[in-house]
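During the reporting period the student researcher (J.K.) took over the structure-prediction task from the postdoctoral fellow and processed the backlog of single-chain submissions. One of the processed entries is reproduced below for the supervisory committee.
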Amino acid sequence: MATKAELKKLQDALKKTQAQLAQVTGTAPIPGFKPAVKMPKPAKQPGQTGFVGPVAPAETQFIFDLQGNPVEVYSTGPKAGTSVETGSVVFQGSGPTRTGGSNTGASKPPAPPAPPAPSTTDRQLIASRLKELNFPSSIIDSSINFVEAAMDDGLELPNAINILYNNKEYTTKNGIKLASPFYAEFTSLKENYKGDPRFTPTPKELMEFSLGVKSLVSRYGRSSKFAERAAIEQYVANGVRITDLDQRFATAALKTLEADPVEVRTLQALGYISKAEDIADFYLDPKIGQEQFEINAKTAAFGKQALKRAEYGITFDAARIKQLAATTGNEAEAEQMAAQGYETISKTLQPLTKLEQIYGVGINQAQIQAQLEEEQFKGTASELRKRRKEQEELAFQRRSGTIGASRGSGGSLGTRSTLGTI
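J.K. obtained the following structure tokens:
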């Protein structure tokens, strides 16, 4: 048996070896762990001076517990050079080795099996794809059922989604008819489309438009009637695009805040609205297509400039305003042209009226205004301007005495003017 001093010496050597091993492998030693060791041969053989105790078999190994006490002795253990595993470190004939490390002297435990990859079902794939396509949550589940049934018949996912987009229904191999929730909600919106067939909206565009209209109604706080299916169908039928409608919603919000009384009266005079509260309806009316709306908008802008100058003698004639506005370009151009034209007309109309009154001739003011409008907005030469010039010249001659009184009794330049009946 080994003495306590020898055991203590072995324990100290073991700790030193364990520290060296941790330094080499880069791992901290396990606190309190006492690996198995192979006892060395006794320094003294039996019969020699100083021999103490029985001879330990050459292959005997001592196993120590965590407190360093021998707990079991193997008299028939593994031969030198093989490992005895009691933890992470063993002692062999060639030195310490960490179990599971890269040293060839130690046995390696088998690697744990990799966790199985989560299985992805067809339904999960369908749901993921429909979300990528921005399907609204209201039709996600029913659309998944439709596509899954088509895939069960052997169709690939893209083909199944294409049927979902474009077909009102699908009949499975078992004879079951399935209605497409997407077609019912969006694709069917184009059934009353009246625009150019070349620009018929696609199913995806119809979905984006429908969702876009609802978003605009919410964003600008407009009446929910503009987000109803009937309104959306009319927008689509009349060829209104979401970008155009976005601008119309923004303008409606601005005009509602401004509440310009002249603009309200203009829209009423043109028959576009019946009361001031309807000004938003003028811009958002789904029954009015984009092209007609643009005509109405520039007509209103044109007419507003005439109505603003009513106090200067300008007469507002709705039919005449619509006729003149039709010759202009867009809304901004119509407003600018009308502002300049009616400003000139208002300045011309008053003195011309006074000049006619000098000669005691009745004036048809509406006819005079129409002649001036022709000149201003249609660019035609006006007899009215020519006659005005002649009358001014005649007045100057009379004041200077260069014309006789007989000239005033007849002739084309006499007081018997036909100006009022042009």
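The committee noted the following: The beta strands are 37-38, 61-64, 70-74, 89-92, 95-98, 169-171, 177-179.
J.K. will present the remaining backlog at the next meeting.
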